[in-house]
Amino acid sequence: MHNGEDLVYTLTSPDGAITLDAIAYGATVTRLLVPDGRGERADVVLGFSDPARYRGPHPFFGAVAGRVAGRISGSQFQLDGATYRLAANDSPNHLHGGVQGFDKRLWQGEQLDPGAARFSLKSEDGEEGYPGTVKVSVTYLLQNSAFMVDVTAAADRPTPFSLTQHSYFNLAGENSGESIASHELEIYADEFAPADSSMGLLGRRERVNEGNDFRRPRPLDEAIPHLHARHGDLYFTRAHGPALVDAARLVHRPSGRVMTVRTNESCIQLYTGVSLDGSIVGKSGLPYGPHAGLCLECEGYPDGANVPAMGDIILRPDKPFGRLTVYAFSTL
Predict the structure, then answer these.
(1) Among 127, 174, 297, 299, the one annotated catalytic
(2) Is 265 noted as a catalytic residue in this protein?
(3) If DSSP codes are grouped into helix, strand and coil, which group holds residue 300?
(4) Which of 58, 166, 252, 291 is catalytic?
(5) How far apart are alpha carbons 236 and 269 in whole angstroms?
(6) Computed over its alpha carbons, how large is the radius of gyration of the chain?
(7) DSSP letters of 192-247?
(8) pLDDT (average), residues 309-322
(9) 161 with 65: CB under 8 angstroms?
(10) Is 166 a catalytic residue?
(11) Before 67, cis peptide (omega within 30)?
(12) Which of 181, 223, 307, 329 could make an SS bond with 218 (beta carbons 3.0 to 4.6 A apart)?
């Protein structure tokens, strides 16, 4: 045991259909067992079998990314007349909260009941260059064959804040040896946020185009070659206020598994796992090659501190913060 990093919190849905394991280091989801059309369960998230591996380098497998998920362009922002410079850990941009983001912090874990666990963190003023102290809690709940991510936060002074759950999904099963090319994807978005060659956001909205339009189901083997850098774009959901909206739907027909993403976040980032190169061996002993899993990261507009018109992500002391994302599983 390493100060609690390796303690595994196991959650089971009330109907017994799905099981989730998480650890306090990074509030990381390490396993998610989901049944297929025949009722046979498989682990549908990428990761490691040994919890200690998450303390080494990896591409945010299962972690909570923050204080701001995504890329802050130019690694700086202005807020209330002051300029804040951040680590360019994805040069020239600042990615997922910096060098020691929330994914590399030891959260305080608490099992609430058999289907729920809460992870809490205090991020001090000045941490990774951000102003203000933030207290945040992320609660994982399993209900009705759904994995729910409930985020609440409070700050003592204004600061950019937007988290995401960064699991890599493969509905064929992490141990299948299949890539996500065998999946079909829908993203219910009319507009996206274009990015430059460094994946820095350009501060504007555009209509989805022939290459990145997922308003109807698309096989990913056909779609990936047409995506920006084969990576995927940031899309604007149809969320306005606290009500949940359908943001995406992922289908793996051979197994019959379906995952529907609902959220009240304003954006969803598609990441196809293009940077996986086979150098990481996963929990089943198989190397993770390109597109071994995909992320559907529900979040605010990452560069909102620089371009407020694109989405306000400033957490203020008088402004309560609550966001909910649901990954609901079903079968064809």
Answers:
(1) 297
(2) no
(3) coil
(4) 166
(5) 9
(6) 18
(7) EE-B-TT--B-S--EE--TTT--SS-EEHHHHGGGSGGGT--EEE-S--SSS-EEE
(8) 93
(9) no
(10) yes
(11) yes
(12) 223
**Residue 22 and residue 8 in contact, taking contact as beta carbons nearer than 8 Å:** yes
CA neighbours closer than 13 Å in the CB half-sphere of residue 279 = 7
* Residue type for position 58: H
pLDDT tens column, 140-179: 999 989 999 999 999 999 999 999 999 999 999 999 999 9
Tokens coding 291: 């597109």
DSSP H or E run through 88: none
- Walk me through the domains of the chain, giving residue ranges and CATH numbers: 8-331 (2.70.98.10)
Residue owning tokens 């994946």: 199
Give the C-alpha separation, 154 to 313, whole Å. 13
21 contacts 33 by C-beta, under 8 angstroms:
no
Amino acid at residue number 17 = A
Check whether the bond before 308 is cis (ω within 30° of 0). no
State the pTM of this model. 0.96
